[in-house]
Design a protein that fits this description.
alpha+beta
Length: about 210
């Protein structure tokens, strides 16, 4: 990258869709991000612009104070941004069919991201964004497959980070629940194994994104 992005470009990056990385702005602003290799223009109509892996990494970094103070109008991020359910949290408002639609749309967006960011266009294995957001990506794959996340007072899956690089832990109190979670993740392009916690004897899944 020849130079850091301007304040306007930084805000466009921050307003990107958290799943697909789609960005909005003027043609000049977007092509400027392409020159910085922080975005690319999709070759197919409607030729939208999306963040590259470098753009996603930059999006995760907080804005510096001097840029944050500059008044630069850009497209605002929509309220109620989709968040994958990791398990253990309260169910989101407007559940039921509305949640099913949100999850389906997020999963379709992730599949499209795989197609346009994986070097060979493969959609059957995780992309760079998923490797950088392991817990969220695994949780989205589970919910999209119909697995039920745990509620504060109920039974279901719970996804968490682990000390092992590129791996998440998935816990479910029921054997059949763990089998369903393992099948869902494998179908989504993850490698899954079942292990026993030495101290408690509890069974859990260890999942990592498949590379080939």
């Amino acid at each position: 990258m020849a130079r850091p992005p301007t304040a306007v470009q930084q805000r466009i990056i921050q307003a990107a869709d958290p799943v697909t990385g789609r960005i909005q702005g003027t043609e000049a602003q977007l092509t400027g991000l392409v020159r910085l290799r922080l975005a690319f223009r999709h070759p197919r109509p409607p030729h939208d612009y999306f963040l590259t892996a470098a753009g996603h990494r930059l999006r995760e970094q907080p804005e510096t104070p001097d840029r944050a103070d500059e008044p630069t109008p850009v497209p605002e991020q929509k309220p109620g941004v989709f968040a994958a359910r990791l398990g253990g949290e309260e169910a989101p408002e407007g559940g039921g069919q509305a949640r099913i639609h949100e999850v389906r749309s997020a999963w379709q967006g992730l599949i499209e991201m795989r197609r346009i960011t994986n070097p060979d266009g493969a959609t059957d294995r995780p992309c760079g964004w998923e490797r950088a957001h392991l817990v969220q990506a695994a949780a989205l794959a589970l919910e999209a497959a119909g697995c039920r996340p745990a509620t504060p007072d109920g039974e279901g899956y719970h996804v968490s980070s682990t000390p092992q690089p590129e791996a998440v832990g998935v816990r479910h109190p029921a054997p059949e629940g763990r089998r369903a979670c393992a099948a869902a993740l494998e179908q989504a392009g993850w490698q899954v194994g079942e292990y026993t916690e030495p101290r408690t004897g509890a069974r859990y899944l260890l999942a990592s994104p498949r590379r080939v």
